[in-house]
Inverse folding.
């Protein structure tokens, strides 16, 4: 049975015509799915009972079954474990920013855990945000040593509809509370560019002005640096934000942490980023998980600054980019420890002194393992 969220509008229209229904019914169903967040044929009261029965018989409306939900102590982060139709499982996360009901002390708990870092990211630009972190694969084939998803290995790709359904689940949850999704980061389980077609189809589906109408610039997609996919992304001239998980400034270190670097080394990734910036005029973000005494050293910071400034170190050759650093989130399969407050501030200082913009990201949901690199689908 096909998942209804896997069908683009033309395919849904053709399906209904094959059932002997008028084509305009597809638009009614489309609006019900993506504007009213219906997840059952019975909710489509503007359709005949017979058509609702046909939909229930031929299409699957709910592909994600919530198994468990964990809420951070400050109530600002919610992680949901979903079972899929084949018994596999994924996790996705809702992060609230700027909730007035949360005190400053409560918001800082996860940020301060293990590192003593103060809550840097309580900035005005994040006020009122409702950000989703969604998954594109069950597991991941990239094998990044510090990532829980990479440690579990690759199971399978998610379909376009399974990716879309994660957003619809949280959109429905927030709508019931008088709120709405404001941002989507494709940084959950899996490498989005390893599932390029389904990931982009999902973003297009959610961006459809006749449906959910979620702005392209409210998406951020993160990749470990699959160069051919970055170049394809560049050719498509998308307005979606691009982030590169870099984590090291020299190939030997990066290859020891991210095995994919052996195929796509740093200079090739940066060359692809330069092509992207030249073609689109858009800024690239580089993600960096700071691991104590591994990649949080002044030498790594200076090396990174040199890479991003270009060979000449002037404004003309400087990469249009921003670096997001965050202390490592712990996982059971990796012994590395998060950096200290002093070292993260020093790292940022070196980059900024070299003219490279840098932000220290707030650690969210660390204690419920909802932070970056901590997601893993496991159904007991």
């Amino acid at each position: 049975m096909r998942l209804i969220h896997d069908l683009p509008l033309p395919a849904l229209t053709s399906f209904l015509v094959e059932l002997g229904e008028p084509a305009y019914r597809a638009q009614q169903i489309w609006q019900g799915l993506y504007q009213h967040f219906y997840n059952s044929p019975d909710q489509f009261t503007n359709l005949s009972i017979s058509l609702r029965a046909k939909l229930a018989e031929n299409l699957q409306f709910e592909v994600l079954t919530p198994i468990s939900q964990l809420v951070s102590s400050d109530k600002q982060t919610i992680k949901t474990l979903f079972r899929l139709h084949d018994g596999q499982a994924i996790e996705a996360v809702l992060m609230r920013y700027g909730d007035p009901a949360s005190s400053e002390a409560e918001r800082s708990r996860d940020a301060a855990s293990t590192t003593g870092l103060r809550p840097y990211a309580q900035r005005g630009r994040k006020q009122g945000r409702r950000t989703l972190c969604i998954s594109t694969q069950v597991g991941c084939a990239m094998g990044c040593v510090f990532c829980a998803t990479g440690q579990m290995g690759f199971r399978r790709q998610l379909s376009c509809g399974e990716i879309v359904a994660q957003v619809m689940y949280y959109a429905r949850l927030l709508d019931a509370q008088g709120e709405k999704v404001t941002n989507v980061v494709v940084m959950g389980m899996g490498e989005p560019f390893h599932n390029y077609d389904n990931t982009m189809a999902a973003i297009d589906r959610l961006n459809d002005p006749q449906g959910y109408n979620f702005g392209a610039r409210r998406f951020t997609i993160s990749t470990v640096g699959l160069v051919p996919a970055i170049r394809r992304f560049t050719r498509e001239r998308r307005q979606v934000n691009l982030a590169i998980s870099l984590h090291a400034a020299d190939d030997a270190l990066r290859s020891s942490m991210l095995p994919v670097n052996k195929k796509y080394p740093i200079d090739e990734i940066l060359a692809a980023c330069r092509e992207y910036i030249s073609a689109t005029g858009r800024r690239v973000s580089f993600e960096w998980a700071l691991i104590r005494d591994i990649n949080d050293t002044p030498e790594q910071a200076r090396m990174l600054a040199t890479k991003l400034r270009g060979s000449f170190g002037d404004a003309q050759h400087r990469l249009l980019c921003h670096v997001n650093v965050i202390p490592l989130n712990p996982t059971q399969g990796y012994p590395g420890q998060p950096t200290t407050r002093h070292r993260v501030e020093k790292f940022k200082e070196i980059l900024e002194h070299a003219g490279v913009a840098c932000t220290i990201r707030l650690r969210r949901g660390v204690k419920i393992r909802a932070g970056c690199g901590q997601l893993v689908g496991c159904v007991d």
About this structure: Residues 100-127 have pLDDT under 50 and may be disordered.
